[in-house]
């Protein structure tokens, strides 16, 4: 049971949601956008997230969009089950199919996972690697930007800004990919690490979750992995020097074990997606 | 604490009740409406004991606010009457302490309704949403597979 009270609003238009947010702020409240709401409810129950107003975005048509022409457009309020059922983006589907469990995926949304507090946020990995773009709404209007420009440890949203949609070029969706979620044990639960990779223009691109306290894609790491002057093991050792933050050391695994698993996974990626054929 | 009136369609009946916006559907079902079939377990979306059916999809009622339920068709274990999956849970003795059983039955029922041709992988994927601490998984698997076979026979016949 959540011990505190909050206002609940369910706007049916983007503008209404944005104006509500500002109006609630003017009343001295701390509103949050609510999509699937799973994290707000579970963290709220233990007082790790406290709000006095939620704005449910599920009735906003643009947030429920699914369109496909020369690019795929997915609304932020689509559930992970919706994303899986659409069968339009295999790389993203493989990532979200491993998030939580089947029933929970009926509630967790794409936008919710991208903007979550949870450190894993695996839906971000394919979006970073396919150079997807995101549509944001603010009182200044709608803005479309590459996700790589705005995702630094977390999605850098301005106060009151709303994530509306995610857009991905169909060409990028068709590129060869690899994604694996390594757990300490069992087939369900939090990962030790999740590593995603995409092959584009003969280069392997990599994004990682669960290694540090945020998902990331790092250009220096990718440059090292694609350096054909080095052997595979040397490339991997060089790539590890560019891990952008402290490696996690927790109940799911020690930092040393995570690095061990990462090395083996990177070796698998180079073997599966290419790059290992020139092993010097 | 402020409460607002909402109307929920539960087990085929519209019910109006006063709820806090922050109240989960699980809490309202149990504490306001007396529908205690959905069980509180982890209250964190992990165990599946509180699973109900919302518009044909299994849903963990601890992960849903009661206010989100307005306009949706909600079915709890109390709304299930002599379904095949219930019979099969008895037939295969797919329970021990029984605490997880309503959640499992609601999840299995949604699976059978949505995917009568479910593969073994799909069954496993769906059942991973629920935990049985008595570890009666084999019997539960037998129950759901038999219920699926019966559903298909009925469709074919």
Automatic annotation (TrEMBL), chain A:
Signal peptide: none annotated. Pfam families: FAD_binding_5 (PF00941). The keyword Flavoprotein applies. It comes from the Bacteria. It comes from Tigheibacillus jepli. The keyword Oxidoreductase applies. Keywords: FAD, Flavoprotein, Oxidoreductase. This is FAD binding domain-containing protein. Residues 1-173 form the FAD-binding PCMH-type domain. Transmembrane segments: none annotated.
UniProtKB/TrEMBL annotation, chain B:
Pfam families: Fer2, Fer2_2. InterPro entries: 2Fe-2S-bd (IPR002888), 2Fe-2S-bd_dom_sf (IPR036884), 2Fe-2S_ferredoxin-like_sf (IPR036010), 2Fe-2S_ferredoxin-type (IPR001041), 2Fe2S_fd_BS (IPR006058), Beta-grasp_dom_sf (IPR012675), Diverse_Oxidoreductases (IPR051452). Residues 4-80 form the 2Fe-2S ferredoxin-type domain. PROSITE patterns: 2FE2S_FER_1, 2FE2S_FER_2. Keywords: 2Fe-2S, Iron, Iron-sulfur, Metal-binding, Oxidoreductase. This is (2Fe-2S)-binding protein. It comes from Tigheibacillus jepli.
